[in-house]
């Protein structure tokens, strides 16, 4: 620190280490204060933040150096001096360059070996990079790595920052590959718990007995093989967020334990009678219909009510319209940059094929397709032959081989893209088939031969199906 | 004659312009000494209100601690001479003004090393 008084870390390593060498390399600003709150030392990050050099600041009251909005009314040193433990607050400072800088200000008391207060340490984390990030997240087409500008996603992005700021339990629903994990992490990162841990547990990945120990921890000797105390994921997530993915797969006995936790925020490790209070926000996700599971007796209704405080549904990609193109370009740019390629875009055919594809695996599938194409493509434009064969095959099928071939192959084959695009939960096949026929007739402008071709059916099959669904004119039937 | 405004906190120049709840106002004579001075307690700390007060008082000089760029530029545009980033007691700031030695960013406060 001072040239005359070199502060050392001693007793930890073989030789004493000079503090300044360590502190100056840290990214956060450190300010050491005497008991009467005068500056003893600023590290390099603090010099940059405040605009005052260490020699300029030394010996001055900290309020004139840090210039935080907390200084006059809610000085954090007041709180730590009252033995309130470490204090961490959001604040702002005005530096010598006349900039108002948002910071996270943490203050701790420094004591000597006898416990007497020898000073204080303030740590100031510059939050400007995060602020810029939040501004970007605020834009309607991006939130924590989730890209979209369809109305459905815009609505979602509009409510998410508000949800992130609360401490309520969140239930994220959506099909596989829609980005539930991304969303959970984004909510955590935007919340006041962002500095705390984000712990993810896949409830479907472990057998019930292991999962209980994994979640709630166990005491040494609780069962054979429990040779050590294990804290469990709940305790690891203390002051942070616990993300329970595939919550629909959580066994019923553990649902009861989770329910108890949601009520009183106390966990009981296996083999322990003593409860441990933990401060954890729960975010759960599932691709299953929990209401259905409740009806079937596979999921506890009371747990659903407790998790369902804030429910966020991520729409499947097929319902996100223009987002497909946006995501294609987004992933293309990302992979081109990662793989150092010179690809500029998609050919007309490839673009049409990708836009027509139903993406049953949602965004994850689209991302994989683009990654594959960027890997394979050695040209400037991604062509049809650069796409995975299962994508192009569907496109070819949709274009319609001859009716004879379809008849020979079974006659009842429907374009897979239509299946993916239109099948909704709770819609019967009959309704679906009627809708497909109507769609094909509209696309063929009423010409049944063409409609049959589109559907990949013979004319007679189409006639029979139309009759079956009551789609014939009165004089035809 | 020029009017000087110094936002204060107890006996010091307030560390922050926007958080000052008190303002010292002095009238500096041609010889440099202050011929008139008073203290105004503000109803609430606010940079906007403080700017209004400075302009309504017709002050030509502002001595303050940390000030945001937008307020600094506004006051300079309004022809107020701003000495910002000053770390001083009110007495030492007044003395430096009287002697004509005050500069922006001046550190006039006594240092104590009690660590």
What does this structure look like?
The complex is a heterodimer of chains A (477) and B (115). Chain A is an alpha/beta fold and 477 residues long. Chain A has four domains: 119 residues, PAS domain (Beta-Lactamase), CATH 3.30.450.20; 181 residues, P-loop containing nucleotide triphosphate hydrolases (Rossmann fold), CATH 3.40.50.300; 79 residues, Helicase, Ruva Protein, domain 3 (Orthogonal Bundle); 66 residues, no CATH class. Chain A has 22 helices and 18 strands. In chain A, a hairpin with an 8-residue loop joins strand 13 and strand 14. The longest helix of chain A is centred in the C-terminal third of the chain and has 17 residues. The radius of gyration of chain A is 31 Å and the shape is globular. About 7% of the residues of chain A have low confidence. Chain B is an alpha/beta fold. Chain B has one domain: 2-Layer Sandwich (Nucleotidyltransferase, domain 5), CATH 3.30.420.130. Chain B contains three helices and six strands; from the N terminus they run ββββαβαβα. In chain B, helix 2 links the parallel strand 5 and strand 6. Chain B is globular and about 40 Å long. The termini of chain B are far apart. The relative contact order of chain B is 0.21. At the A-B interface, helix 4 of A face loops of B.
């Amino acid at each position: 620190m001072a040239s005359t008084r070199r502060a050392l870390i001693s007793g930890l390593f073989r030789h004493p280490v000079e503090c300044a060498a360590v502190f100056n390399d840290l990214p956060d600003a450190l300010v050491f204060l005497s008991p009467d709150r005068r500056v003893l030392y600023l590290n390099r990050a603090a010099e940059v933040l405040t605009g005052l050099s260490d020699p300029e600041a030394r010996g001055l009251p900290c309020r004139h150096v840090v210039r935080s909005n907390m200084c006059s009314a809610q000085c954090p040193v007041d709180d730590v001096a009252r033995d309130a433990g470490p204090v961490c607050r959001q604040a702002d400072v005005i530096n010598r360059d006349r900039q108002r800088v948002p910071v996270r200000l943490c203050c701790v008391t420094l004591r000597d070996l006898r416990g007497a207060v020898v000073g204080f340490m303030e740590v100031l984390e510059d939050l400007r990079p995060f602020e810029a990030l939040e501004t970007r997240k605020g834009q309607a087409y991006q939130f924590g790595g989730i890209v979209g500008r369809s109305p459905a996603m815009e609505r979602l992005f509009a409510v998410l920052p508000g949800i992130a700021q609360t401490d309520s339990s969140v239930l994220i629903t959506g099909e596989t590959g829609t980005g539930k994990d991304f969303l959970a992490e984004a909510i955590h990162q935007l919340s006041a718990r962002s500095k705390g841990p984000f712990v993810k547990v896949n409830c479907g990945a472990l057998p019930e007995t292991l999962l209980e120990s994994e979640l709630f921890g166990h005491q040494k000797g609780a069962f054979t093989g429990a040779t050590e105390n294990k804290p469990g994921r709940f305790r690891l997530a203390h002051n942070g967020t616990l993300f329970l993915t595939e919550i629909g797969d959580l066994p019923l006995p553990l649902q009861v334990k989770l329910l108890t936790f949601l009520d009183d925020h106390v966990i009981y490790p296996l083999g322990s009678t003593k409860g441990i209070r933990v401060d954890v926000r729960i975010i759960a996700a599932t691709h299953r219909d929990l209401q259905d599971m409740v009806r079937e007796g596979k999921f506890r209704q009371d747990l659903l009510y407790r998790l369902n405080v804030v429910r966020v549904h991520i729409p499947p990609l097929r319902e996100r319209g223009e987002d497909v193109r946006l995501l294609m370009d987004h992933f293309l740019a990302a992979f081109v940059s990662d793989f150092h390629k010179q690809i500029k875009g998609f050919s007309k055919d490839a673009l049409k094929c990708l836009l027509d594809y139903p993406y049953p695996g949602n965004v994850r599938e689209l991302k994989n397709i683009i990654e594959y194409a960027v890997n394979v493509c050695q040209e400037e434009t991604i062509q049809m032959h650069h796409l995975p064969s299962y994508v192009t095959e569907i496109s070819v099928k949709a274009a319609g081989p001859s009716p004879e071939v379809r008849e020979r192959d079974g006659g009842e084959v429907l374009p897979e893209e239509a299946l993916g695009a239109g099948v909704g939960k709770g819609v019967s096949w009959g309704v679906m088939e009627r809708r497909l026929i109507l769609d094909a007739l509209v696309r063929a402008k009423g010409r049944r031969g063409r409609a049959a071709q589109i559907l990949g059916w013979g004319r007679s099959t189409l006639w029979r199906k139309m009759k079956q669904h009551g789609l014939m004119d009165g004089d035809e039937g | 004659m020029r009017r000087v405004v110094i936002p204060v906190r107890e006996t010091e120049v307030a560390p922050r312009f926007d958080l000052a709840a008190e303002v010292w106002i002095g009238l500096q004579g041609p010889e440099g000494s202050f011929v008139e001075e008073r203290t105004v307690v503000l109803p609430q700390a606010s940079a906007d209100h403080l700017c209004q007060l400075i302009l309504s008082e017709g002050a030509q000089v502002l001595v303050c601690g940390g000030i945001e760029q937008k307020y600094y530029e506004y006051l300079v545009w309004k022809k107020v001479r701003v000495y910002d980033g000053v770390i001083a007691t009110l007495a030492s700031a007044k003395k430096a003004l009287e002697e004509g030695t005050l500069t922006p960013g001046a550190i006039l406060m006594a240092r104590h090393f009690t660590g």
